[in-house]
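Follow-up to my earlier ticket, as requested here are the two runs.
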Amino acid sequence: MMMPGGHGNENPNTNYMNGRGFWIFYLLVLGGVHIILLSVPVSLFSVAWVWTLTHVGHNAIQFWFLHWMKSHPWITFDQGSNRRLTHWEQIDHGVQYTPTRKFLTILPIMLYILASGYTRYDKIHFAINTLSLASVLIPKLPWFHKVRLFGINKY
């Protein structure tokens, strides 16, 4: 169905994520940032800390973009029905377990496994990485769809 405005999507905010090109771009940007962090000539940036920074940075950006920001930046014709939904709640019209949602859920888990392995399960890194993973996995659970804890980010 063609919508007024030149595109056939009622919510173009999330359709770009369904393409495999987006997934490859996402992985390339993540890998590029990790390589840049590895190449910083600072003694504090050991391999363990770079993996932790990559994981925590990725999860912080993903939490902000997918689970905190609401509405959409483009003009849509949904009569404001998505105005109070986060980006995650808008992906695939809220249908759970689609390929895009699985990709965006599995990626932090894979980063967590890599970060834990490269830090040799150090207690400090393990605690930081576990809290970071929990901050992005818990909001992705189906039980938290359209749920705002303690009224935070309700409006």
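Run two:
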Amino acid sequence: MAQIALWLVAGAMLCCIPAASLEEDGLSVHRGDNLRIFNLLRQLQRTPLHLCLADRNDFKFPWNKGTITQTQKTQRTCFHHLMLLQIFHLFRAQRSLAAWDHTLLSHLLSSLDHSLERLEQREGDIRACPSWGILVRKYFQSIHNYLRQKKYSSCAWEVVRVEVTGRLLSL
């Protein structure tokens, strides 16, 4: 039942993303990477979602489709890179190793690393957006604080996994 709910949420989020937006931004190459990472994140699920409803949290995601205009492709690419980098660091942390299946986690980290390398090769200087860096770090700091507050419980990790999975789809 929980997997059906996750697929429904993922499908709804995919329908909300304009198909041409990735093409227009030159990020179509990374759509496949994002979907691979999405699938690995989905496979990490250990705790049924319905058991974690009380632990849900609003992490105040700093970006929506209207935040960056069409002419700010570099900033959009930079934001994408920053998000992938923070996701990589989140799941590479020692506390994360205890929470997930090691084989799946290894595949996830490898896919994230590959995506980051591709972005860096394709876009050159992607660190040209310090204001986005601050916002992304604040967002992920709120995730780290939440995990610490919840004592890194399985439900807390599940809430974070769902949050990150959903945000990945919006990139």
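The only thing I checked on run two: The mean pLDDT is 78. Let me know what else you need.
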